[in-house]
Amino acid sequence: MWRKPFTVMFGGPAGYGIMSAGTMIAKAGGRNGLWAFVVNEYPSLIKGGLNTCTVSFDDKPVKAHEERLDFLGALSQEALDQNYEKLGHEAAILYDSDTVEPNLARIPAGVKLYPVKLLGSLAGEAAKVMANSAMVGAFCALAAFPLEIIASIMKSEFKKESVLQQNLSLLQQAFDQTKQQFVEHKAFPLAFQCDGKKKMLLNGNDAIAMAAIKAGVKFAAGYPMTPGSSVLTYLADHGAEYGLVFKQAEDEIAAVNMLIGAGFAGVRAIGSTSGGGFALMTEALGFAALGEVPLVIVEAQRGGPSTGLPTRTAQADLNFVAYASQGEFPRIIVAPGDIEECFVETFRLFNLVEKYQVPGIILTDKYLADSTVTHLYFDDQNLRIERGKLVDEAWLSEHQPYRRYAITPDGVSSRAIPGQKGGRHIVTSYTHGEDGFYSSGNREYAEKEPQVTAAGIDKLFNKVPAMLQDIPAVKLHGPQEAELTVIAWGSSKGAVLEAISAVNQEGRSVNFLQILYPSPFPAEAVQTVLQSSKKTLVVEGNKTAQLAMMIRAHTGFAADAIYLKYDSRAFVPSLLITKIKEVLG
C-alpha cells in the first residue's frame, strides 16, 4: 500500500528563520540516507506575515509534498490557526507557550500538544534570528531526530564562530529542556543511515541555472520578478567562475533585447521572468523568431491574473506563451515536471534553439521553481553542446554571396556571426528575403512582395516536422495499457506519479501521459497514446483546462474527465488519489 511521507511544518513570523529551520532538517536527512521535499510559503509582503516551511521525508525519493501534517512547530498564533485542518491523526504540535494559545475545540482527536518556552529569554532581534534554532532543538527532542546531525549542519552553515556557538547553545538548551519536560514523544518513523550517495538539496531554478552554465551560457540578463528571479541570482552569484556576464536591465524589454543581441553575436544567453515580465518581452519574441536568432527565456508562472499572487503557484500561462507575440511563428516550449527535467531539458533546449534558430521558453512555476528537493548529483557524462548550422570563415569563403536566410528544405539556414569575413548580413524585424532585406523596401522584391513574404513564413514553419522528430515531446509513465490515462504537464508530474502508484498498488491500472514539450504540439505522439486509452483524466492548475483545449484543437480528442485546481496551490498526491478513484468508479 502507498505510504504518505512523514511531513513536518514549521511556521512563524517572517524574519524568524522558519525556512532555514526546514532546510536544516532536510539537509540533515539527506546526508543520512533520507530524501526530502521542501515547500516554502510566504506572502507577497515587504515585511511581516506568516512564513511556513513544509518538509516531507521518506526513505526513497519524494516526488511531491503532502499537506497532511505529522508534526507542526508553531512560533506564532497564526501558524497554528491556519493549519488546524492539515493536522493528521496522532500528529504532534510543538508551540511556543508564551505566544500561542491552542483552540482545543479545533484540534483533531489523537493530536498531542507540546507547549515549550521556545523563545525563553530571547528578545528583539535575537528572538528573530535564533528562534529557529530553539524550535529545531525541541523538534529533535520530540521526534527523536538526531541532534548531532543538526549540529553538523550548523557548523557548515555558520561562518562566524560566535554566531555558531550561540545557535549551538540554544539548540542544545531547547533539546534538553524539551526532553526533560516530556518523557513521551512522537518517534521519527524513518531510519537514519549513511548510504554513501552524493546528494544535493536544490530547487528547479537552481537546476535550470546549473544546466545553463553546463550548456555554455556566457550571458544572462533580466529584471527581478518572483518566482523567476532566483535563476538570475544563481547565475549572478556563480557566473564569474564560468566566464558568464550577468546584467540586471532597467526592465524586461531591455533585457530581452540584450539577449537577442547576444544570440545574434553567437553567445548563448538566458533570461528569466514571470508572466508580467514576459508580457513586456512578447514583441521582441517575434523579432527573435523573424530574425531567426536563438533565444531562451524562463517563464516561471505564479497566481494571477495581473499582479495576482506573486509568491504562489499556477499553471495558467500555457496559452499565453504558446501564442505570444504578433503574427505566426514556431517556438519551442518545454514544461519540465521535476528537478531532473529542469536540468536535462534546459541543456537540451539550448541545443534545440540553436539547431532550429527559434525562440525557446522554459515554462515552469513557483512550486517547481522554489521547492527544494533531495536529489542525486546530475549525470552529465552524455551531455554534448551542439550548435547547429553555425559556420566558420572557411565555409563562408566557399559560399558567396552569403545569404543568411537562404531557403532550405528543412527551413534552417547557415548562420554566421558578426566579425566573420564574408558573413556580413542584415537582421531586421521586417519580413525579408533570403538576404535579409526588407521585402517592401527593396526594389528587387517590390513586385514580388507577396511571394517573398509567404516564402519567408513557409521557411519558418518548414522547421516544424524535423523539430517534432527531434524533440522528446511526451513521456508515458506506468503500464502501456490501462483502465485510465492521466494527462498532465509541468510540476503536477510528481503528485500524479505518486497518485497512480498508490492506486496501482490497490490492483487498478492507471498510466500517465506527460506532455513535456507542448510546442510545437506533438499531435501524432499524443494521438498514438490516446488511441489505446480506455478512459482519460486531464489534470491542470488552471481554470480553463488549457492543455485539454490544446489537445482537442490539435487532435479532436475530448477528455472524459478534467480536474482543475486554480487556488494558487499545488496538487498533492492524496487529492489526486481521491479523484482518480472517483473517475475509475
How would you describe this structure to a colleague?
This protein starts with 5 loop residues before the first strand and ends with a helix. By secondary structure, the chain is an alpha/beta fold. The chain has 20 helices and 19 strands. Helix 17 (493-505) links the parallel strand 16 (484-488) and strand 17. The chain has four domains: 6-181, Pyruvate-ferredoxin Oxidoreductase, domain 3; 201-376, Rossmann fold, CATH 3.40.50; 393-466, no CATH class; 473-584, Rossmann fold, CATH 3.40.50. The radius of gyration is 26 Å and the shape is globular. An eight-stranded mixed β-sheet has the order 6-5-4-1-3-2-14-7.
Chain-wise SSE layout:
Blueprint: E1 6-13, H1 18-30, E2 35-41, E3 50-58, E4 69-74, H2 77-81, E5 87-96, E6 112-116, H3 124-143, H4 147-157, H5 161-181, E7 199-203, H6 204-214, E8 219-222, H7 229-238, E9 245-248, H8 252-264, E10 269-273, H9 275-291, E11 295-301, H10 318-323, E12 332-334, H11 339-356, E13 359-365, H12 366-370, E14 372-376, H13 393-398, H14 443-446, H15 449-461, H16 464-470, E15 474-477, E16 484-488, H17 493-505, E17 510-515, H18 523-530, E18 536-540, H19 546-555, E19 561-564, H20 573-584
Parallel strand pairs: 1-4, 4-5, 5-6, 8-9, 8-10, 10-11, 11-13, 12-13, 16-17, 16-18, 18-19
Antiparallel strand pairs: 1-3, 2-3, 2-14, 7-14, 15-17
Tell me the number of helical segments per DSSP (H or I, 4 or more residues long).
20
Corresponding CATH architecture of the largest domain: 3-Layer(aba) Sandwich
Overall 3D form? globular
- Number of domains as seen in the coordinates: 4
Percentage beta strand: 15-25%
Largest sheet: 8 strands, mixed
Low-confidence blocks of residues: none
The Rg value, from CA coordinates, equals 26 Å
What topology, given as strand order, has the largest sheet? 6-5-4-1-3-2-14-7
Instruction: Please state the average pLDDT score.
Output: 94
